[in-house]
Amino acid sequence: MPSKIKTLNNKICRMCESTKFFKVINLGNHPLVNSLIEKKKIKFKDPVFPIELMQCKKCKLVQLTKIIDAEEIYKNVDYLYFSSDMPSLKKYFKDYSLDLEKRFLKKNDLVVEIGCNDGIMLENFKKKYKILGVDPATNVVLRTLKKKIPAIPEFFTKNISYKISKEWGQAKLIYANNCIAHLNDLRDFMSGITNLLEKKGVFVFECNYWGGMVKNVNYSLIYHDHFSYFSLDTWIKFAKKYKLNIFDAVVTPAQGGSLRVFLSKSKYKKTRRFKKLIKEEKISNLNSFKTSLKYKENVLNTANKLKNIVINLKKKGKKIAGYGAAAKGMTILKCSKIGNKLDYFVDDSPAKQGYFSPVDHIPIISRKKAQNKLPDYFIILAPNYSKEIIEKEKNYLKKGGKIIVPDKEITII
Fold it and tell me: How far apart are alpha carbons 344 and 364 in whole angstroms?
């Protein structure tokens, strides 16, 4: 990791350019979540940076204004998240791609994925269509190329869109999954989309959903990689500036609840589920500052409840291990101040095994290696995979092991 990490302080909203913000919640200073530590470096002090959630007074976008330069996250270090290592994602992306194919594509159309990671979804379009991936993490793109999927290791920008359209033509389908929240310059990004997209083409993206975060008291999505937290209403206003029409939207189970949005230059008929979601946001007063303050209160209560549970268990001499050294889990640990209470993490991703968590320097091992020293309690730190983890650990539970699920109720199984 570089000794001097570049930070940015936005003075304007990244959607509407307003300069006026409400403060939603200050989560304190956190390490960079995916910057896991090698054993030889645990003697050094890891840098931490503030996480303060703000809300634009004008367009109501919830966002971080003090951010880490994305170059530091995706370019200057190896990015340790690989989609193919995640359980159940293969089926999820298969079903997702079949829906897009059925609704919008004809043979030999150009399909471009922004934030393609290791090509897990793009692979589904390989046989019938021209495909291209774009992702800033070079080490991740190398895995994509290994699958014989063409990809470029760059951030998607207006400038890159011109280069792609010049060499490949315009795209019938552009999609981006859980990467838009990682972008600071959304205006340049959307200009690039407009340039690259065919007139009757469709742009589809998934992003974190503020509505789901509020409803489920989900604060695990708040970390330095995520600059923005979106509602459908904020996107409707923003898309109009680029002459893009939102015609469909749905909340999916990905990442514990993601917003999937469909846009086009053409006038597609608006779906029933799109209209229903708009109505739900209005009825719940989702984008109000009052709702944001209630969210803050719920988050602090939930984090404090988890802290008390873990501290009491440790006082009784219980061994507790983290299940999944995920970015989301690091936020949970830091907010509840229990990162140093864990004996170890288990993680299925070989890319993370052998490393240590930032700041607290807790070792990350494979589930197989943990079998000989099982804890009294596992705390799930990849909360979006809670169901799969609980199913996988049936034998552990039968033998008396316990699992803590850090949902809004803090469930113990």
Answer: 6
